[in-house]
């Protein structure tokens, strides 16, 4: 790790290690998280970050060490940008009072770079995360047992986070379906990725029901039915 990285990630000193005073916190490299979780973790693109100016606020993830078992892994907090250096580094002041981090306080100086920024004042609400944030019900035959998606349908969503999509392996018994422990609420991108049709995947992602009311769709090669989740569709 070079000296600029040390400055970027470690700001406030608190503990000693090998005779050197060390901080309890560091900044998360959000680029790594976004690459691994592109459908569930929002990270503004570089062109959006390039729009940030002095006086604006950006959000960073402050990871920290704590002996408290109740403590979270990190705190997400806003920083007011004071200046942007020629090498792309940002210098700002913390705009929140940390709830858990003891060696960091409101108005402390923080130096960071674009990889640490997770929100800006210029973020577009029409992004990949918002499109896939909806949830769907999937049985554990698919999630845990590895069964293929055999039947799916879409009904009226139960709440604003519900996409209305329901996925089953079509071999679940009535007793199995009546047990809530056998059903999970997950991001719609998960089961969509298991369906062997890019056309159907796109329809699911865009909240369109391509086979509404059909027992079986030859176009997509997968059974589709509709009704309340927990009632089995006809056909096999």
SSE topology sketch:
Blueprint: H1 3-9, E1 15-17, E2 20-22, E3 25-27, H2 30-36, H3 46-49, E4 57-64, E5 74-84, E6 90-94, E7 109-112, E8 117-119, H4 128-132, E9 135-139, H5 140-143, E10 151-154, E11 162-168, H6 174-178, E12 183-187, H7 189-194, H8 198-205, E13 216-217, E14 222-224
From the structure above, extract its key features.
236 residues, alpha+beta, six-stranded antiparallel β-sheet, six-stranded mixed β-sheet, disordered C terminus, Imm33_dom, DUF2314
The SSE order reads: HEEEHHEEEEEHEHEEHEHHEE
Question: Are there runs of 5+ residues with pLDDT below 50, and where?
Answer: 1-14, 196-203, 207-236
Look at the structure and give the mean pLDDT.
Answer: 75
State the distance separating the first and last CA atoms. Answer: 59 Å
How many β-strand runs?
14
**β-strand amount:** 25-35%
Alpha-beta content class: alpha+beta
Counted up, domains total 2
Give the quaternary arrangement of the chains.
single chain
């Amino acid at each position: 790790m070079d000296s600029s990285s040390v400055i970027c990630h470690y700001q406030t000193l608190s503990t000693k290690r090998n005779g050197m005073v060390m901080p309890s916190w560091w900044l998360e490299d959000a680029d790594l998280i976004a690459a691994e979780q592109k459908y569930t973790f929002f990270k503004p693109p570089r062109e959006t970050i390039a729009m940030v100016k002095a006086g604006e606020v950006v959000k960073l993830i402050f990871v920290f060490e704590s002996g408290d078992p109740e403590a979270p892994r990190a705190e997400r907090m806003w920083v007011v940008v004071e200046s942007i250096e020629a090498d792309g580094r940002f210098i700002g002041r913390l705009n929140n009072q940390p709830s858990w981090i003891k060696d960091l306080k409101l108005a402390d100086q923080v130096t960071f770079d674009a990889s640490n920024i997770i929100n800006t004042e210029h973020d577009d609400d029409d992004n990949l995360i918002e499109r896939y944030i909806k949830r769907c019900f999937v049985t554990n035959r698919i999630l845990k047992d590895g069964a293929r998606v055999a039947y799916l349908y879409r009904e009226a969503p139960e709440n604003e986070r519900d996409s209305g999509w329901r996925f089953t392996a079509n071999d679940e018994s009535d007793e199995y379906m009546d047990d809530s422990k056998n059903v999970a609420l997950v991001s719609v991108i998960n089961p969509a990725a298991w369906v062997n049709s890019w056309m159907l995947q796109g329809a699911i992602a865009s909240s369109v029901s391509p086979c509404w009311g059909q027992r079986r769709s030859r176009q997509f090669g997968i059974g589709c039915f509709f009704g309340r989740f927990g009632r089995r569709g006809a056909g096999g």
